[in-house]
Amino acid sequence: MKISKAVIPVAGKGTRFLPATKCIPKEMIPLINIPMIYYVVKEAKDAGIETIAFISSTGKESILDFFDRNLELEKFLEDNKKVDLLKEVQEYARMVDIISIRQKEQLGLGHAVNEARCFISKGEEFAVLLGDDLVFAKRPCIAQLADVAAKQGGSVIGVMEVPKQETCKYGIVEGDFIDDKTLRMKKMVEKPAPEIAPSNLATPGRYILDSKIFGALKEIPKGAGGEYQLTDAINLLCQKEKVFAHIFEGRRFDTGNPSGYLKAVINLALQSEELKNDFINDFEEAKKYYEL
Ligand code: G1P
Fold first, then answer.
1. N or C terminus: fewer CB in 10 A for the chain?
2. Which helix or strand (DSSP H or E) is residue 174 part of?
3. At what angle do helices 71-79 and 83-94 cross, to 10 degrees?
4. Residue 231, exposed/middle/buried by CB under 10 A (0-12, 13-18, 19+)?
5. Does the structure show a pLDDT above 80 at 226?
6. 44 closest CA partner among 116, 177, 148, 135
7. Which of 10, 160, 170, 231 is the best mutation target for the ligand 1 pocket, counting ligand atoms within 8 Å of the beta carbon and taking the most?
8. Would you say the CB of residue 204 lies under 6 angstroms from ligand 1?
9. Cβ(138)–Cβ(256) below 8 Å
10. For residue range 56-109, what is the model confidence (pLDDT) as tens digits?
């Protein structure tokens, strides 16, 4: 089945990026000159997704504006013959169809995904992408997971290896390998301490989920951190249904924290023909200046 819908939760307060997030959504903080959220939407679009539901909250309206037309700006660019910029700003509004669902209380990722139940039909598979994580890959990470879902059926969780001491930051999976990159899942645990983590395979927030997840989301009690955890619902789902974990190919950045954000900016600069040499030259200068 073709995956045509994605859910992107964007309701979080972005406390790790205060003070900037006092008045702008963290998703709109730019990586160089393009807001972070663009890269997540682009991953979905490049994987063939046509409609995105943002699970949103008050103060996040600028995300919707970014993916909408701005006729006043377009007229200004047109009048001033800034043709390339005009094309670029129009392009963001054409990427995908967007809907917005308000999450009225922030009760956890499981609660946020459950808000999308009216958007997904029974029997439909859909993607969930978390905006704090960017994955730069030759084939979009979510498309790699959709490939596994198309082959195996059921739900597929994107995972990567992390150092054992970092298991307490992620949803961690356990299962049996069916090929060198894919496991049939038996269990998923939210942020386990390293001593009790069932593996070091962690999700950076990329999921293909069967609509049966909504049944599981209804059943789970509050979990880690006193929140409704998507991980707990996936754990329940894999007791009854086919759920796979797939080690995706690509470089992942946790742009929800300043250090991951900086690395993503540097990687984007290195990917840009226009900025690469300037950045490298300045970095060499900086090393001398700061005696690194
Ligand atoms: C969420 C999920 C967790 C996942 C992580 C990826 O946690 O609950 O399973 O591994 O995102 O970033 P959060 O970082 O929002 O606390």
1. C
2. strand 171-177
3. 160
4. buried
5. yes
6. 135
7. 170
8. yes
9. no
10. 999 999 999 999 999 999 999 999 999 999 999 999 999 999 999 999 999 999
Structure tokens given for 96: 């995908």
Cα separations (Å) of 251 from 136, 138, 139, 140, 254?
5, 10, 11, 11, 10
**For residue 287, how many C-alpha atoms fall within 13 Å in the half-sphere facing its CB?**
6
Ligand 1 center to 204 CA (angstroms): 7
Task: Give the pLDDT band of residue 1 (cuts 50, 70, 90).
Answer: low
Q: Which two tokens stand for residue 263?
A: 């690395």
Q: What is the pLDDT of residue 291?
A: 87
Q: Judge if the beta carbon of residue 9 lies within 6 A of ligand 1.
A: no
Report pTM: 0.95
Residue 217 pLDDT exceeds 80: yes
Q: Is the CB of 170 under 6 A from ligand 1?
A: yes
Residue 205 Cα to ligand 1 midpoint, Å, equals 6
| 129 phi-psi bin (left φ>0, alpha ψ -120 to 50, beta other) | beta
CA of 109 to the centre of ligand 1 (A): 8
Q: Is the CB of 109 under 6 A from ligand 1?
A: yes
- Whether ligand 1 lies within 6 angstroms of the CB of 158 is answered as no
Pocket lining: 232 vs ligand 1, CB cutoff 6 Å: no
- Average of per-residue pLDDT across 38-47: 97
State the average pLDDT for the chain: 95
